[in-house]
Specification:
The complex is a heterodimer of chains A (232) and B (282). Chain A is an alpha/beta fold and 232 residues long. Helix content of chain A is 35%, strand content 27%. Chain A has two domains: 3-78 and 153-230, P-loop containing nucleotide triphosphate hydrolases (Rossmann fold, 3-Layer(aba) Sandwich); 87-151, no CATH class. Chain A has helices at residues 41-49, 71-77, 94-101, 113-119, 121-125, 136-148, 166-181, 193-197, 217-222, 224-229, and strands at 3-12, 15-25, 30-34, 56-61, 64-65, 79-82, 154-158, 185-190, 202-207, 210-216. Chain A has a six-stranded mixed β-sheet with strand order 6-7-8-3-9-10, with helices on both faces. In chain A, strands 2-1-4-5 form a four-stranded antiparallel β-sheet, with helices on one face. Chain B is built from eleven helices and two strands; from the N terminus they run ααααββααααααα. Bound molecules: adenosine-5'-triphosphate and magnesium ion.
Chain lengths: 232, 282
């Protein structure tokens, strides 16, 4: 088991956001987390990354309890994070954004800057440009590339297609498939049902901070009732 | 010209403050106290070594390191535990630190006036365009730009400098790419304090070293950083030049009211550009 959430409860200050969320992601899978706006997808990913640590419950990464650890430790253990709002370092160039995130690991296929430039050629074109000057789509690419050069085993991907044109969505789908083929495990938070279902085999649906359904992608695709119930 | 060399001291001190302000997002009120410790340490070290050339150069080298060491201890023992807390806590802490360091200096060095001499090499003056100009001031005019270039290289060319620029804007995300932000902050804080110490050591042959010099410099450094643009190193340079030059012009043209000039310049600059002349990182 790559990643396992056991009954986590997460709060922002006094407001209780996640209720008893449990999910598991197996090695090499793309698992997706579907839900409407405000359902708690981002909060779930932030809980895993230690940015919004859960108050109760446990998070296990490769069998080890990691809840309560700082984000930098989680990254070093092998979790990569691509936030939905991208959070590119605007003052740094594209190259510098990647440079400071570079992290070598032993005994695994390595991502480095030339390789992510191959994956996203437009990043190479703008490698000397300030991150803040990139378009939204380019920033998304950079956010993914920045996570990849950290050579994670498990990638937390938050709404990669938000605000993208359909042609771009197709590009991202291809790239994420490539990542899967390279052996990366992905937990993908999305609203775009079609996009997600075309990528992953297993899905969790979250609504109002609770997991309201889980099942194979085929099931969810067929079962209209589940989708309307969970508002997606 | 005197104003220009004064501006160099101001720049070295305020660039350190600006660095800490930009990355840690906290105005270090104790910055002036570290400057004072730099000056007193320079005095002690050079006196211990019997003055002269060697004494001065060693003092110039060691005094900022003493200050850096003090700041490192303070940061790791106390300050670093406050990063997660509210910002006001950090601010209050630096205020407390200023009071504590002030008292420690009084305990250690007493309330007397101290002074040290510039090394023989830098004593006396040379003539430039017919008017005498102290050699030591020329020395300051060389050091100032060197520090500016060094700082520029640090923030733009070193990895830790780039990380510190990223952390200034989004420390959480810097953590999420596997960097222990706490150490980045520690390094930046110590570097900023080192610059305060360097400023103190450099100024020591030109003024009398005494308690209270911390308050003067902290006022000036705050104003310089404010007019230059918070956290912007070039802003600190511009601010220092404005401050130093108006100060010496004042002395030249209207000595009784000389002290008013730089403050008037600050008022004008802030009315013109309330957020600082150059881009503020805040
Ligand atoms: N910093 C915060 N403080 C307080 N409440 C927050 C905070 N961030 C999010 N929330 C609340 O938590 C709930 C879940 O938000 P979350 O961002 O996890 O949703 P999401 O599923 O990612 O939505 P979206 O699809 O819009 O990105 C929302 O009701 C939101 O208002
Ligand atoms: Mg979200």
């Amino acid at each position: 088991m790559m990643l396992e959430l056991q009954n986590i409860h997460t709060f922002y200050g006094l407001s209780h956001i996640l209720f008893d969320v449990s999910l598991t992601v197996k090695q090499g899978q793309i698992v997706c987390l579907l839900g409407r706006n405000g359902a708690g997808k981002t909060t779930t990913l932030k809980s895993i990354m230690g940015i919004a640590p859960p108050k109760r419950g446990k998070i296990l990464f490769k069998g080890e309890v990691v809840s309560g650890k700082a984000p930098y430790i989680l990254c070093r253990k092998g979790i990569g994070y691509v936030p939905d709002d991208r959070r590119i370092f605007a003052d740094l160039t594209v190259y510098e954004n990647l440079e400071i995130a570079l992290r070598k690991r032993e005994g695994r296929q390595q991502w480095d800057i030339p390789r992510v430039f191959e994956l996203f050629p437009s990043l190479q074109k703008f490698s000397g440009r300030k991150g803040g000057l990139l378009s939204g789509g380019e920033q998304k690419m950079l956010a993914i590339a920045r996570a990849l050069v950290g050579n994670p085993e498990c990638l937390l991907l938050d709404e990669p297609t938000e605000g993208l044109a359909p042609a771009m969505v197709a590009v991202f789908r291809d790239r994420i498939r490539l990542l899967k083929e390279s052996g990366l495990t992905v937990l993908l938070a999305e609203q775009n049902v079609k996009f997600t279902l075309s990528l992953s085999e297993y899905a969790y649906i979250i609504d109002d901070g609770r997991i309201c359904h889980q099942g194979t992608v085929a099931e969810i695709q067929e079962n209209e009732a589940i989708r309307t119930m969970c508002g997606i | 010209m005197v104003g220009l060399s004064r501006a160099m001291i101001l720049f070295i001190v305020s660039s350190g403050m600006s660095l800490v302000l930009g990355v840690l997002r906290v105005p270090n009120i104790a910055h002036g106290s570290l400057y004072m410790i730099g000056a007193f340490s320079a005095f002690s070290i050079s006196t211990l070594l019997g003055g002269g050339n060697a004494g001065f150069w060693l003092a110039l080298f060691l005094a900022p390191l003493v200050v850096a060491l003090v700041s490192f201890i303070v940061e790791r023992a106390l300050f670093c535990h406050l990063y997660e807390r509210e910002h006001l806590m950090l601010l209050l802490f630096t205020f407390a630190l200023m009071l504590i360091l002030g008292d420690l200096v009084k305990l250690f060095w007493g309330a007397d006036y101290r002074s040290i001499m510039a090394p023989p090499l830098l004593q006396g003056s040379i003539r430039i365009l017919g008017s005498p100009f102290p050699k030591y001031n020329i020395f300051l005019l060389i050091i100032g730009p060197l520090v500016a270039v060094g700082l520029w290289l640090f923030t733009n060319k070193t990895k830790i400098g780039k990380i510190s620029r990223a952390a200034a804007v989004d420390m959480e995300m810097v953590g999420a790419i596997g960097i222990n932000v706490s150490w980045v902050f520690a390094f930046t804080f110590v570097l900023g304090c080192f610059l305060a110490g360097l400023g103190g050591a450099l100024v020591s042959p030109t003024i009398s070293i005494t308690l209270g010099m911390d308050h003067d410099i902290i006022m000036e450094a705050f104003l310089i950083v404010a007019i230059g643009g918070l956290g912007n190193m070039w802003g600190a340079l511009v601010g220092s030049l404005i401050f130093g030059l108006t100060q010496s012009l004042g002395v030249l043209f209207w000595p009784q009211f000389a002290i008013v000039f730089p403050y008037a310049a600050v008022v004008i600059a802030l009315t013109w550009r309330p957020r600082g002349i150059l881009k503020s990182v805040w």
